[in-house]
Amino acid sequence: MSSEASIYNRPSVLDCFRSSGNSWFQKRNLKQMLESSKDSAKLDAMKRIVGMIAKGKNASELFPAVVKNVASKNIEIKKLVYVYLMRYAEEQQDLALLSISTFQRALKDPNQLIRASALRVLSSIRVPIIVPIMMLAIKEASSDLSPYVRKNAAHAIQKLYSLDPEQKEMLIEVIEKLLKDRSTLVAGSVVMAFEEVCPDRIDLIHKNYRKLCNLLVDVEEWGQVVIIHMLTRYARTQFVSPWKDDEVVEEYSENNFYESDEEQKEKDRKVKNIYTMDPDHRLLLRNTKPLLQSRNAAVVMAVAQLYWHLAPKSEASIVSKSLVRLLHSNREVQYIVLQNIATMSIQRKGMFEPYLKSFYVRSTDPTMIKTLKLEILTNLANEANISTLLREFQTYVKSQDKQFAAATIQAIGRCATNITEVTDTCLNGLVCLLSNRDEIVVAESVVVIKKLLQTQPAHHGEIIKHMAKLLDNITVPVARASILWLIGEYCERVPKIAPDVLRKTAKSFTTEDDLVKLQILNLGAKLYLTNSKQTKLLTQYVLNLGKYDQSYDIRDRTRFIRQLIVPNEKSGALSKYAKKIFLAQKPAPLLESPFKDRDHFQLGTLSHTLNSRATGYLELSNWPEVAPDPSVRNVDVAESTKEWTGILGMTKKEKPTEKFYSESEEEEDESTNTSSSSRCLESNLHLHCLENCIFRTKTHELLHRMSGKGLAAHYHFSRQPGIFGDHMVSVQVTVTNTTDQKIENIHIKEKKLPPGMRVHEFNPIECLEPAESITVSMGIDFCDSTQMASFQLCTKDDHFNVNIQPPVGELLLPVTMSEKDFKKEFAAKTVHSGSLMLVTVELKESSTAQLVINTEKTVIGSVLLRELKPVLSQG
Amino acid sequence: MIHSLFLINCSGDIFLEKHWKSVVSQSVCDYFFEAQEKAIDVENVPPVISTPHHYLISIYRDKIFFVSVIQTEVPPLFVIEFLHRVADTFQDYFGECSETAIKDNVVIVYELLEEMLDNGFPLATESNILKELIKPPTILRSVVNSITGSSNVGDTLPTGQLSNIPWRRAGVKYTNNEAYFDVVEEIDAIIDKSGSTVFAEIQGVIDSCIKLSGMPDLSLSFMNPRLLDDVSFHPCIRFKRWESERVLSFIPPDGNFRLISYRVSSQNLVAIPVYVKHMISFKENSSSGRFDVTIGPKQNMGKTVEGVVMTVHMPKAVLNMNLTATQGSYTFDPVTKVLTWDVGKITPQKLPNLKGIVNLQSGAPKPEENPSLNIQFKIQQLAISGLKVNRLDMYGEKYKPFKGVKYITKAGKFQVRT
Question: Where is the MHD domain (chain B) (predicted)?
Answer without folding.
Answer: 176-417
